[in-house]
Amino acid sequence: MNMNKPTIFALFLALFGCLGSCSNDDDSSSTAEDSETSTATNSDTDSDADSNSDSDTETDGTDGDTGTDGDTDSEADSDTDSDINTDSDTATDTDTDTDEPFSFVVITDTHTRLPGNPDDADYDNQGNLDNLENAVTIINAEHSNAAFVAVTGDLVGCLFSQNPADYNVGEPNPAEKFEEIMDGLDMPYHVSLGNHDYEIDYMDEGVTAPDPSGPEAVWRAVLDIEPYRSFVFQGQRFLFLNSVRGDAYLTPCIFADVELSCTGSFDDEQLTWLEQQLQQPEPCYLFFHHPVKSDNAFMMWSFAGDSFLVHQDDYFYTLAETYADNIRAIFVGHGHLSVEDTLNETIQVYETGSIGDTFGDSDNISIVTVDPQNDSFVVESDRI
Q: Please, which residues have CB within 8 angstroms of residue 316's CB and are 6 or more apart in sequence?
């Protein structure tokens, strides 16, 4: 979401975005003294952790090499060419007991920009950098045992070029600044791309690249990632999806002059890949940028109707209903608010507050603890 008009967006968010969602009165979660904890258990599904003993499997959603998702200190990866329908990329898991509980961290909407660039007139570019650096410090200090950090999109405010040859040549740019700060983590990180990660103009932020392949080539060059991918860790399958590159990619954003892709959508090739992933035996955790149209109106960020959510006619919803028993949780961003709801009354959906831009704060960090043996998880956040 382009938040460079904070007054009107903040007004709508305050009036509508928090209806029924920001008061922390949800009976489905228990509130601690300083934070709120949401617990989910799926007792009807047998854990398949043992079938993935001692190994993590990673697969890309597109043809090409599997990347490390920006992590330079991750466990030893054995990268091979991957087909869309195969799980051929394997990384060794150093944990020998796949029933052991583990945690991961979720952040979103870091909106990395460079101070002094033209877009600094509309944003607090230094403030966004400070927030992200502080978040990395907090994660390292307070959650050092986390298996990984997930980022659900809008890594940057915009790209300065969609030509991958312009990167990794010593020219300062938001994408590599994001990488530089995130490389300060003591654990791996994995990302989903958001609508801002497909924007390309410092002078008039919100100009979406006419074709998604350009920005995707940039992210492949900078973070060595494909547009969507998955991996298995301790018997759980983690899917980092892309809610930008579907039919709504060129749909204009409401309240914006030139910005596109505020509405989420999934391309057909990705949906075919996703269905194959959901048919696998492991419980699945999904990460992508745009919130879904959840069960309760205004629980997800939907002050402008459905125009900022995954489009209501997207085939994703059919897959989510069909394979609901195998989806444990969905983590999204885009709305800059920390709220939670359900999809199909069974799938837990969590929208994480932003690190950068409107409502941005370095404390907008969610910690998810997974218990493979009991097929359950707990989400803790100061803001949910």
A: 266, 271, 274, 292, 310
- Write down the pLDDT at residue 64: 39
CA dist., res. 10 & res. 145, Å (int)? 35
**Residue numbers in the chain where pLDDT is lower than 70:** 1-37, 39, 41-58, 61-97, 203-205, 298-305, 382-384
pLDDT of residue 300: 57
The span from the CA of 349 to the CA of 299, in Å, is 10
- Residue listed under structure tokens 């939670």: 340
**Distance in angstroms (rounded) separating the CA atoms of residues 150 and 327:** 17
Alpha-carbon distance values, 86 to 60, 69, 74, 285 (Å): 8, 18, 22, 19
Residues 6+ positions from 58 with CB-CB distance below 8 Å: 66, 77, 87, 89, 90, 91, 229, 230, 231, 232
Element (H, E) at 217: helix 213-223
Residue 192's closest CA among 146, 158, 223, 157? 223
Distance of alpha carbon 164 from alpha carbon 179, whole angstroms: 15
Contact 218, 164 (CB under 8 A): yes
pLDDT digit string, tens, across residues 268-324: 999 999 999 999 999 999 999 999 999 887 665 545 557 789 999 999 999 999 999
Correct CATH for 6-381 of 3.60.21.10, 3.90.1580.10, 1.10.10.1800, 3.40.50.720: 3.60.21.10
Token pair for 271: 């949906």
Which pLDDT tens digit goes with each residue over 301-315? 545 557 789 999 999
Q: Phi and psi at residue 181, in whole multiples of 5°?
A: -70, -45
CA distances from 102 to 92, 216, 235, 354 (A): 16, 31, 11, 24
> What CA–CA distance (Å, rounded) separates 314 from 246?
9
pLDDT for the residue numbered 8:
38
In this prediction, residue 46 carries a pLDDT of 40
